Amino acid sequence: MLVLGGARSGKSHYAQQRTELIAGKLVFIGTAQPFDDEMQQRIERHRADRGDRWQTIEAPFDLIDAIRAADRQGDAILIDCLTLWLSNLMLAEMDVPGEELCATLAQCRHPVTIVSNEVGYGIVPENSLARRFRDQAGRLNQRVAQTADTVVLVAAGLPLFLKS
Fold it and tell me: Where do the annotations place GTP binding (predicted)?
């Protein structure tokens, strides 16, 4: 399942609730990097909100290996978020392995829920890096949406099913 939405749309909360409906061990793959105190506090708050049922894997760069490990360790996987992973790769000037990501997702034995930001609703960014990010995020979301069985857009905390 791919869960899309804007900033503070409720997409992460929705994705977590849906994943928690699955019985068994849950694995959270986080892609955020705590560059400052506010982000560190946000990560810790989200970890506390998930509770003891969740195992956490931090994967700011190597998301594909993290997905493979999570598929061996748990019964359901939640990845939050694809666009943070993309920005990590772009800022490190690393290639974005979109095809390999989709192939890995397709091979998973357990349900995977992926959170990603929909960044294409705004104006055209004024700088080159922001435009490249917006374009790559849009293309990556399209690839993952083609692979996913279900795609949900969350706005104001409400899910709109785009593909099911």
Answer: 5-12, 47-50, 58, 80
Q: Is 46 marked active-site?
A: yes
Closest CA to 75 of 147, 27, 3, 21: 27
Give the DSSP H/E element, type plus range, for residue 5: strand 2-5
Q: Given a cut of 90, is residue 148 above it in pLDDT?
A: yes
CA distance 49 to 125: 34
pLDDT at 51 over 90: no
| CA pair distance 138, 87, nearest whole angstrom | 13
Which DSSP symbol is given to 7?
A: T
Total tally of structural domains belonging to the chain: 1
Domain that holds residue 28: 2-163
Residue 44 is assigned to a ligand binding site = no
Model confidence, pTM: 0.94
Question: What are the structure tokens assigned to 60, written together?
Answer: 């700011």
Catalytic residue among 46, 68, 110, 143: 46
Report pLDDT for 40.
Answer: 87
89 token code pair: 């790769």
Q: What number is the average pLDDT over the span 68-81?
A: 97
Distance of CA 94 to the CA centre of its chain: 18
